[in-house]
Amino acid sequence: MTELSAHLPQFQHGQLTENFPDTHLSNTNDNSERRRHDNSERRRNDNAESETNGQPQSNVQQVVEQDEEEDEELTLKYGAKHVIMLFVPVTLCMVVVVATIKSVSFYTRKDGQLIYTPFTEDTETVGQRALNSILNAAIMISVIIVMTILLVVLYKYRCYKVIHGWLIISSLLLLFFFSFIYLGEVFKTYNVAMDYITVALMIWNFGVVGMICIHWKGPLRLQQAYLIMISALMALVFIKYLPEWTAWLILAVISVYDLIAVLCPKGPLRMLVETAQERNETLFPALIYSSTMIWLVNMAEEDPEAQRKSKNSTSDKQAPASRTQNEDAEADDGGFSQEWQQQRDNRIGPIESTPESRAAVQALPSNSQTSEDPEERGVKLGLGDFIFYSVLVGKASATASGDWNTTLACFVAILIGLCLTLLLLAIFKKALPALPISITFGLVFYFATDNLVQPFMDQLAFHQFYI
Amino acid sequence: MGAAVLLGCAAIALGPAAALLLLTVAAEPLLLVLLVAGAFFWLLSLLAASLLWSVWVRLSGREDAALLPLGAAGAVLLQELCRKADEGLATLSEDGRSPISLRRMAYVSGLSFGIISGVFSITNILADSVGPGTVGIHGDSQYYFITSAFLTMALVLLHTFWGIIFFDACERRRAGGLGLVVGSHLLTSGLTFLNPWYEASLGPIFILTLCTGLWAFSTAGGSFRNVLKCLSCKGVSRSLRARPCSTRRCRCLRRGEGAMAPQLGTPAKAFTPTAPGEFVSVQFLGAFGV
After folding, report:
1. Which of A334, A435, A457, B237 is least surrounded by CB atoms within 10 angstroms?
2. Where is the composition biased (Basic and acidic residues) (chain A) (predicted)?
3. How far is CA A40 from the centre of its chain?
4. Does A219 map to a domain?
């Protein structure tokens, strides 16, 4: 159990990405540039006209500037909207973890350690404890690095079936086994009498719907809810089985690793993202939380070879958010019944959309898309980020002497870190590590609040002084 | 009784803040981001203040509460410093092109300071109020929970008002306004040192809250006449007459097509409204940060 459970996070601590610009979707900057380009073209035309009509040029310039201002406004507004689209799930995950930690004592009870952290922290001297925790963290990080490299190698050599199998086993474990344990502990805490048959039914339904939502298709909100739940479950496992100093060290080291893995040219996660981009595929839906449906305009690909390839690779194209399926476009009729097709043929003649015609339509300049693009485009966050944020806040609420103050301070720190990361994402427009800034702020605030702020606030509250 | 006290005190302390949050901030993503940023600044100030206090305690070698007033004063000053930093950030990011006016940002900044300081003051107390325990078993006041809740509510509202006044004073470069904000914050903190003599602390603090609220309202451009006009829903502009006012609340008075957005950086009184109704709605809503 413990073996497989640890497999999951290694390739989940991921990167923060936006939907990348492909040939047909474009992100905000390109939009505004295109608009500005269109506007400047318009202005050139108007200038040419004005020579003949004698119209003033100033109002045209005002129009251009106004459009630029509107673009900036839109960027700011949609930037904030994307930030909130990530604040909400991160907050929900943390709330679930903190609520569980505060109520269910199972997750704060010490019941041994994972095999990845073999050295105990119940030592006589502080030095021994520090050494043990450093060794534990080193082992854990090396396991994570090895797993990540293995994943990237498998992805590069297109062993999609292996990856898919690995992901399915991990999700099965999380959705069935861990949630069964969680449910059992919640029932024990609230002293609820329950029979095995009901539990079996509940867990079966929960698990199967979860597998379908995560690995195949499902309503977006349900998929997001399941991803949040499995992140929370994983975080709870870490909080339970990682001893204290080891946990803090692992958090610190993994944010450094995240930074290296995503930003260095030979970093495994960067190679993963770049390979996915080259192949024009989405990354595994089981590992990434996406805030919107990905309306992939180019899913109906004009390349027949790619279509054949995608029919074989079951995992990657089946992003549950994708509506137009190219791999089973030929298999089913896409919901159009025979009568409907006959009716259509009677009205407008027998016209079938072929890949060539679709490509021709898509090649038309689509200016109308730009208005709804910023709303449709979402932002993605790896599940590993959810997990480690929740581990930080959960550990803060479990072990801090400042209790709620420390938890709240860590929560705000992580949100601000996420906000800054998204700001950087808007500036740089490439995959960025989401862990470093948030975890740094979180750790700084945890230790500062626990050691400095808590005594101060405690004294003030004792005398009922307010600042 | 524990859960009842918990819910009651939570509602008293954080109810107004939650209502303000839900009604005015929750729908706007940008304001939510500003809220979290403001909370972060307050936390920084608290961190600095606690650091200062620990260093003081360590240096003076005394463990008793004699240094607390100094520590509290330091905390107040650092909070106002961080409010200035927040104002700097808001002015920087606003620069005439953002969809949110500086006044709204002032309101959200004040609200964020209020919420985070209120939450920090009251959450541990609320967690303890679930029980089991006896209030004031060693001879302390029995009204600890309820007075803490009321003090927290007053503080939340005060921070909101101070935010509005502070930003306005910074904008108009009036040192008097700044000084008064800092002074009233120090006064509030000082009054809490009179606890548990609640008549001397709670009463004046609530009077102070009311006065500061009226001051903030008039700073944002409101006046008694505006309130009357708004409540009677009179003076609806021509552009809005087509849409019947379904409620008596001012939310039905929205800025019509012809309204001029208040110029950023100039006081609200300076702009000429298109119709009395527009003026009323914008001022009223502006005073309350909507």
Report:
1. A334
2. 31-47
3. 38
4. yes
